[in-house]
């Protein structure tokens, strides 16, 4: 009898854990070098439940338009994997800076962002992740407050250009390297406050960036305190995605260096708290950890994360 009870308890735990796994949308940033449409099959093969990709060149201002057959192939594959791999996110170009007051640079940034949103719409993506921007070194008189306002104004212009677009733009939390914006919850709060179409804007929370920016969430009490602050300043309703990375650099170092899950300064406890936090169920958690051509590191990191599910 005791034996049977033992087996039953274990079976129930196992089933519960399996069902929980289906609830968490763990994924990775994957290369589209084999063709964008191939990414869903690739993601599923690695055990991803969501995926992030680049949809245009991230290191140049311009990129050629998508071809009709490329778009059709992508949408058809996306449909095929609609129950396995979703949502789909893109990450915008690192060059884009909507904070700048330099007319030429702003035009280039705005055009590149327009291109990103055009392609995200054509491919029917769910989210475009963007780094908020920087105060350019040549624009010393530009205050952080005005820079954040500039970003919000440009986003308002973009959202009115893309009135019928269902794609949501997610501001990514940053490490605060140099004069980068987005490393304080207040920065993101200020941008969102000035965006008029609130349904089009959200947050992508990058664990390694937030940690490097100085927020500690490595035990239950500081984890709770940080999320209370997030709720007060930004609001949980704006949180739509995670970048799940451990950090090679120290707390508050402002240095953006990603490490494998559990092998950096953040450690497993924070990820355990996060993955078992009911508030974050069904949100995508994308790995941007170091990876080789075989992607075996992604398989390892996905397993590390899934092993933390209770
Ligand atoms: Zn990230
Ligand atoms: Zn990073």
Weakly predicted, low-confidence segments = none
CATH superfamily: Divalent-metal-dependent TIM barrel enzymes
Q: Report the β-strand fraction as a percent range.
A: 5-15%
Named once each, the bound ligands are: zinc ion
Largest sheet: 8 strands, parallel, barrel
- Mean pLDDT metric: 95
SSE class: alpha/beta
- CATH class term: Alpha Beta
Annotated CATH architecture: Alpha-Beta Barrel
Name the shape in a single word. globular
* Approximate helicity band: 40-55%
What count of helical segments does DSSP give?
A: 10
Number of distinct beta strands: 12
Within the CATH hierarchy, at the fold level, what is the topology? Answer: TIM Barrel
User: What are the secondary-structure elements, in order, as H or E?
Assistant: HEHEHEHEEHEEHEHHEEEHEH
How many separate domains? Answer: 1
Q: For the largest beta sheet, what order do the strands appear in spatially?
A: 1-2-3-4-6-8-9-12
Task: Describe this entry's structure for a reader.
With 310 residues, the chain is of the alpha/beta class. It has one domain (2-307): Divalent-metal-dependent TIM barrel enzymes (TIM Barrel, Alpha-Beta Barrel), CATH 3.20.20. Helix content is 42%, strand content 15%. It has 10 helices and 12 strands. The chain has helices at 2-23, 39-46, 68-80, 103-122, 144-161, 185-194, 207-212, 220-233, 268-275, 296-307, and strands at 25-29, 50-53, 88-91, 127-130, 133-134, 168-172, 180-181, 201-206, 239-244, 246-247, 258-259, 284-287. The strands form 3 sheets. The chain has an 8-stranded parallel barrel, surrounded by 4 helices. The longest helix is centred in the first third of the chain and has 22 residues, at 2-23. The chain is globular and about 75 Å long. The relative contact order is 0.12. The mean pLDDT is 95.
